[in-house]
Each structure stands twice: as C-alpha cells, then as structure tokens.
Amino acid sequence: MATMKYPTKVVLGEITTRDGLQHEEKTISTDAKLWIVEQLILAGFKRMEVTNMGNPKGMPQFADADQLLQAIHSSKVVKDKLKDVELTAVTIREKAAERAIEARKEGWGPNRILFMVSTSESHHRRNSGLSLEEYWKMCEKYIKKAHDNGVKVNGTVSTIWGCPIEGPTELKKAVEFTKRFLAMGADDIEHADHDGSAPPHKVYEYFSMVLDAIPNPNLHIAHFHVTRGWGLANVLAALQAGITHFESTLGGIGGQPANFVDDCPVAGTGKYYYADPNIVGLVSTEDMVVMMNEMGIETGVDVDQVLEIGRMMERILSRRLRSECIHTGRIPKKPTGR
C-alpha cells in the first residue's frame, strides 16, 4: 500500500505577537502580549518571534518592544523554561539591530534577530527603504556584529512565489538569495510566502530546489500566508519536500503592517495590497498542530493547551479568528454518544 512520505518530527515557530499583531488596527496591551508569550512557552514552543524593534512611528503596535522583552525576561511564569527558548525580534534596519544588540548586552534583549530581503526590488524598497545592494551590505556588517555579541541572525527571503507590486518572480532567484544570506553567516533562512501567492505545487518545487542546493533542513523555515486559502495545503507540500521547520500565528492572524491603528492613520508599509484588509493572515497555529498531530508528526507542543490559548486569543481580539479547530475540536478517538 502506498503511503505519503513526510518528516515525523518538526520544529514550530510561533510568531503571533509580532507578525500576527502587526496587522491589528487596535493596540494590544503589553500585558496581553506577555500572557500570549508565556502561555505558548508553557505549551511547549521553543521558538518565539515576539516583537519588532524598528521605529514604532510606522508600526505603533510595537512601541512597547522594550517593555515586552523586559517583561518576558523577568516573568516568574516561564523563568524555568526561558533558557531553552529562542526569542526573536525583527530588526529590518541598522538602528533596530543596534537596539537589539544593546538590549542583549543588558540581559533582556532577543537572542535572535531578523533581516529581510525581497526578490522583488520594489517590494524590498517599500519594506526597507534601501536598494537590495545597499541592504546586502548592511546585512553583511550587522550579521557579524550580532554574532560578535552572541545574537543569532535569521535571513528572511520574501516574494519567492510572486510580488503584489511587480507580479511574477523567479524561484531560482530566491535560492540564490538564500545562498547569499548563508554565505554571510545567517544562522537560518525563513522562506516567506508573504501574501498568499504560493500554490502548493510551486511550494513543493521550490523547497525541493532549496533542499537540493542546501540539504540541511535545519537551515530552512517555511512561512505561509492564507490570503487565498492555501496555507495548510502549502504546509503539506513543504512537508512532502522534506521541510521540518514552520511558522504560524494563533487564529491565523497577521499580514501586512496596519496603516491605521486605534483612531489614527499610520505609515505601516503604505496602501494595503488588497481592498479588504480582513482577508490577509497566516497559517493558523491551532489548525496546523492538530493536523500534524493527526498525521503522527511530533511537534513538541501540547495540542489541547494550544487550543485553549487559541480560544482566549479570540477574546483578546474580540472577534472570530481563522482557526477551525478551536471550535470543532480534535477528531474524536472514541464514540461521543451523540
């Protein structure tokens, strides 16, 4: 009998309080963010992307980046587990990287930072304000500086499967960017379908190319958005290609940075790519861990605990989110009597 082939053990990165909350149009309190981070760590997550240390003028959701990181490090709830947790902060530009490194020296900063390139020049300029060549020079300098101060660096490659500004992109260019990041010393690579442009067959093709070129699966992280509803299909395609590291958000929230927060327009990254700001989002953490659990894949997290956190996430944001499993539950393993 033919059986589907995929890894039996994966590593999950939970990125709700950064990528998930960056699209929210109301400010979420530091206490709520701390609660989310604490509960996810207690549920077993060891890779957490928690905030953005860039200038909060454009993304005021992260004006509390310092306070949140300090609160995590001083938390009594997770003090015995924190030593085994990788805390990541996004640091697109130099000042943010400097800020993160200094915070690390002071004992409360992240132990991993993130730089991001897009294979599309126009998308990259919108995100970073620099040309690609200018940005590569900055990365080369700051990857070394981060490592000299005990901070890991993730290199994110975006617009792999298409750009909302320029349209189609070439997969092989993303493979070249991956090699360039790793040659500079990046510790791992996030391969981002940043806007839901990736169909499953192209996900399988791309990650097969990546693993042929750079076979170590620990270097590669799959990051999928669900703008067109393909998120879990793409997770499955990546699994079949041999990918073992994935990222997701509670309730499938997240997406392009909000350009309106509370009662005020803000810069974000400019005009929304899609007319309806509610259609964006990432793969749902809750649904992904339930699916993987049913497939016999070891995730290292407590599935029931994740579902409970997901239910509370809906209360924190005061709306129905994208997770199906927090409402339908896990598949029953015995008669329900109904």
What would you say this structure looks like, in words?
This protein is α/β, with parallel strands linked by helices and 338 residues long. It has a single domain, classed as TIM Barrel. It has helices at residues 16-20, 30-42, 65-73, 94-105, 121-128, 132-148, 171-184, 200-213, 231-241, 285-294, 303-317, 325-328, and strands at 11-14, 47-52, 86-90, 112-118, 152-158, 188-193, 220-224, 245-248, 260-261, 264-265. β7, α9 (231-241) and β8 form a beta-alpha-beta unit. The longest helix has 17 residues, at 132-148. The model has no long low-confidence stretch (mean pLDDT 96).
The assembly state of the depicted protein chains is single chain
| End-to-end separation | 34 Å
**Inertia-based shape:** globular
Helix share bin: 25-40%
CATH architecture: Alpha-Beta Barrel
What is the gist of this entry?
The chain is 39% helix and 14% strand.
Topology:
Layout: E1 11-14, H1 16-20, H2 30-42, E2 47-52, H3 65-73, E3 86-90, H4 94-105, E4 112-118, H5 121-128, H6 132-148, E5 152-158, H7 171-184, E6 188-193, H8 200-213, E7 220-224, H9 231-241, E8 245-248, E9 260-261, E10 264-265, H10 285-294, H11 303-317, H12 325-328
Parallel strand pairs: 1-2, 1-8, 2-3, 3-4, 4-5, 5-6, 6-7, 7-8
Antiparallel strand pairs: 9-10
Helix pairs in contact: 2-3, 2-11, 7-8, 8-9, 10-11
